[in-house]
TrEMBL record:
Protein name: Co2+/Mg2+ efflux protein ApaG
Domain ApaG, first and last residues per copy: 8-132
UniProt-listed Gene3D superfamilies: ApaG domain
PANTHER family named in the record: OS05G0170800 PROTEIN
Name of the encoding gene: apaG
Pfam families in the cross-refs: DUF525
Species in which this protein is naturally found: Novosphingobium silvae
Superkingdom of origin organism: Bacteria
Length: 132
């Protein structure tokens, strides 16, 4: 089955696509825990090779509580993405509310050492009404 990417951001030739799905089997709604999995595809059409160095996420729940997550790489990797290539990874996000959102940016290093910041598109986290 082909993944449906619902959200896209393009920054100077670098495209970040996101597909997000609610996982009821990983959620504990009776305990106030909801869980989503998201699939990211980063497509490099910048004309140069880039290495993903850091991530910056802004996660907001339905109460307006914001959590900022920053760190090196993604899922333990700092992938090098050549022009014309892409990198995919999957991660997850728990929340204490049935709705929320995520957005952010990645910092990449160019071959000459200069930094490049690419946007991660805003995407909602929404559990089905039957799950909340």
């Amino acid at each position: 089955m082909k993944e449906l990417f619902q959200h896209t951001a393009i920054t100077d030739g670098l495209t970040v696509r996101v597909a997000v799905n609610f996982l009821p089997e990983q959620s504990r709604i009776e305990a106030g825990k909801w869980f989503w999995v998201y699939h990211i595809r980063i497509e490099n059409e910048t004309g140069e090779t880039l290495q993903l160095m850091t991530r910056h996420w802004r996660i907001t729940d339905a109460r307006g509580h914001v959590e900022v997550i920053e760190g090196e790489g993604v899922v333990g990797e700092q992938p090098v993405i050549a022009h014309g290539r892409s990198h995919d990874y999957v991660s997850g996000c728990p929340l204490s509310t049935p709705q929320g959102s995520m957005e952010g940016h990645y910092t990449f290093a160019r071959a000459d050492g200069r930094e490049f910041t690419a946007l991660i598109p805003f995407f909602p986290l929404a559990a089905p009404a039957t799950a909340g």
